[in-house]
Known about the structure:
Blueprint: H1 4-19, E1 22-25, E2 31-35, E3 46-49, E4 61-64, H2 67-75, E5 80-85, E6 88-92, E7 98-103, H3 109-112
Parallel strand pairs: 4-7
Antiparallel strand pairs: 1-2, 2-3, 5-6, 6-7
Amino acid sequence: MPSATATFERDAKFWSDALGRVLMPDENPRYTTLKGRVGGAGAPYVLLQKVPAEERAVHLDIETDDVEAEVKRLEGFGARVKSRIRGHVVMVAPSGHAFCVVPTHRSDFPEKAATWSE
């Protein structure tokens, strides 16, 4: 079984890749921030915290205009499909956390969307 540090590093890398953000260590070694590259002003602040396994309870939705393409991209980082429900896909990150890939629902999605190079 991998160490807690190795597991956290793997999980942090997944979210860095999935959200297109750079991992930045914090002054407090329990935290790592996902900064930059996408979103600009008003983008969500994402802070990862090292916590005991039994406290892991987070769920993110990733909005996209192409659900299948985003699912494929995230599978490339190690996520797997858990189920497909109506127009969205429930996935599981390498950490075991469930998250969803959902179709667009915000009216400002086109102008504020992050894009990924192939």
